[in-house]
Specification:
By secondary structure, the chain is of the alpha+beta class. The chain is built from 1 helix and 6 strands. The chain has a 3-stranded antiparallel β-sheet with strand order 1-2-5, with no helix packed on it. A 3-stranded antiparallel β-sheet has the order 4-3-6, with no helix packed on it. The radius of gyration is 30 Å and the shape is elongated. The termini are far apart. The relative contact order is 0.18.
Length: 133
C-alpha cells in the first residue's frame, strides 16, 4: 500500500496559479509603461517638428583670410523673430569664429549672406542652431 504524500503548504514556493497571476500583472505593467513611453516620444517628436517656428540651413560659404561669408536660408513663421548661431573652424579643428545673426523680417523664407569675422583663416562654416525669441 502506497500513500500519496502531500508537501507542506508554502514551504517550496508558490503555486503555479500564483506564478501565472504574477506574470500577467508584470506583463500588464510592461504594456502600460511601454505605451506611456511611446506616447511621450510621439509628443516630443511632434512638438519638435511642428512647434519649431524657426529653422535654418547653410546653402554655401566662402572663406577669406579673416572672415567667412555664409549664405543662410531661414524658414520661420512670418511673425516670428530669432537668431542663428554660426561658427567656423580652422584646418586643425580650432574654432576661429562664432557669432549670432538676428532675423526679424516679416517673411516666411529669408535668403541672406552674412559675414562671420574670424581670428584666423576658417575652412568651415557650421550652423550650430537657430532659436526663436
Amino acid at each position: 500500500m502506497s500513500a500519496v504524500q502531500q508537501l507542506p503548504e508554502g514551504r517550496y514556493g508558490s503555486s503555479r496559479a500564483a506564478d501565472a497571476r504574477a506574470d500577467r500583472k508584470l506583463r500588464i505593467a510592461a504594456i502600460v509603461t511601454g505605451t506611456l513611453f511611446a506616447g511621450l516620444m510621439i509628443w516630443f517628436g511632434w512638438y519638435y517638428v511642428v512647434a519649431n517656428k524657426f529653422s535654418g540651413e547653410i546653402i554655401a560659404f566662402k572663406t577669406h583670410k579673416s572672415s567667412v561669408e555664409v549664405h543662410l536660408e531661414i524658414r520661420k513663421d512670418s511673425d516670428a523673430s530669432g537668431y542663428c548661431t554660426v561658427r567656423s573652424q580652422s584646418a586643425d579643428g580650432a574654432e576661429v569664429g562664432r557669432a549670432d545673426f538676428r532675423f526679424s523680417q516679416p517673411k516666411e523664407r529669408i535668403d541672406q549672406v552674412v559675414t562671420l569675422r574670424t581670428s584666423g583663416r576658417g575652412t568651415t562654416a557650421e550652423l550650430i542652431g537657430c532659436h526663436a525669441d
